[in-house]
Design goal:
alpha/beta, Rossmann fold, two-stranded parallel sheet, 10 helices, 37% helix, binds nicotinamide-adenine-dinucleotide, binds uridine-5'-diphosphate
Length: 313
């Protein structure tokens, strides 16, 4: 007799996936983590491996997967520009073939499935803050397209499987999220700045540093995932999940310098092509449908992240 919910997390050994697996195990589920360890590590899930209800499987989501589960969180995909541009063709395949395989699995076993989509579907947004109805401003042939268009196509597949095959879908559009277990070499702004500050190296601002982002602490985001998965079948999203506290990247650098007590200076580097100039979620929908909003202040989240990264210095 099956007592526990069987939950599959693809990309479960990554930054977000490992936090999600932890929450799912703590809530008494049976968790299957599927990962090809491209950017995720076994270290991220080491603490879970001793639990009988946690299982790790090396598998690439671009290949079909035959398992029996009740819910699927589809997170497998490199997420930082450095990692997703390393092998752009593989990135698009991961999003598109991965979505087809996981949706096919959900269809066969009648599982509910959540897609980890992204604010990158809005590209370099002209509407600000971004609501879910905004259709975006993506360059389809630029260096970010392998990720942005892959994720857009995955959303299309989710909605077509829903309309055509009645698969129960949930689409989360995740905005910049940070916290412990971010990959130290992923080049994302929080991990870069924290490590540079802790090492006393110059902080690398791309462009003028006036571009904005809004940073969500990982625990808040995972709570949003769980609430989204728990919604009734009539709610599919897409729904923005992020912290609407928007700040310029330069101000983030100054805050991290202050919190670390670092002597680092600021240096300016060229702005990467197609780097969005502003990004901030409108989370009205998440508030009303999920009763969710972030609760961890930036300073608290940054302090926890800084403590995590001390071991890498
Ligand atoms: P991450 O790189 O730490 O995690 C991705 C995981 O997927 C890794 O463990 C990696 O090894 C695995 N993976 C990659 N390709 C795979 C494949 N073909 N088959 C199996 N596993 C594969 O990144 P993250 O920040 O934890 O992101 C998780 C998901 O959330 C991604 O889908 C990402 O696009 C999305 N997302 C994250 C953010 C963020 O700010 N962290 C923002 C928007 C969207
Ligand atoms: N950025 C920066 N210095 C760095 C890394 C990133 O100024 O060392 C900038 C980057 O150009 C972007 C923002 O910080 O404007 C966020 O970058 P990240 O790669 O974390 O995520 P994005 O939101 O661009 O996907």
């Amino acid at each position: 007799m099956q007592l526990r919910k069987r939950v599959l997390v693809t990309g479960g050994a990554g930054f977000l996936g490992s936090h999600l697996c932890e929450r799912l195990i703590a809530a008494g589920n049976d968790v299957l983590c599927v990962d090809n360890y491209f950017t995720g590590t076994k270290d991220n899930i080491a603490g879970l491996l001793k639990d009988n209800h946690f299982e790790a499987m090396r598998q690439d989501v671009t290949f079909p997967l035959y398992v029996e589960v009740d819910e699927i969180f589809n997170l497998a995909c490199p997420a930082s520009p450095i990692h997703y541009q390393f092998d752009p063709v593989a990135t698009t395949k991961t999003s598109v073939h991965g979505a087809i395989n996981m949706l096919g699995l959900a269809k066969r076993v009648k599982a509910k499935i959540m897609q980890a989509s992204t604010s990158e579907v809005y590209g370099d947004p002209i509407e600000h803050p971004q609501t879910e109805s905004y259709r975006g401003n993506v360059n389809p042939v630029g260096p970010r397209a392998c990720y942005d268009e892959g994720k857009r196509c995955a959303e299309t597949l989710f909605f077509d499987y829903h309309r055509q095959h009645r698969v129960r879908i949930k689409v989360a559009r995740i905005f910049n999220t940070y916290g412990p277990r971010m990959h130290p070499n992923d080049g994302r702004v929080v991990s870069n700045f924290v490590l540079q500050a802790l090492r006393g190296q110059p902080i690398t601002l791309y462009g003028s540093g006036s571009q904005t982002r809004a940073f969500c602490y990982v625990d808040d985001l995972i709570e949003g995932f769980l609430r989204l998965m728990a919604t009734g079948d009539d709610f599919t999203g897409p729904v923005n999940l992020g912290n609407p506290m928007e700040i310029p990247v330069k101000e983030l650098a100054e805050r991290i310098i202050k919190l670390t007590g670092s002597s680092s200076t600021l240096i300016y580097k060229p702005l990467p092509q197609d780097d969005p100039t502003q990004r901030c979620p409108d989370i009205t929908l998440a508030k009303s449908k999920l009763g969710w909003e972030p609760t961890v202040p930036l300073e608290t989240g940054l302090k926890r992240t800084i403590d995590y990264f001390r071991a890498f210095v």
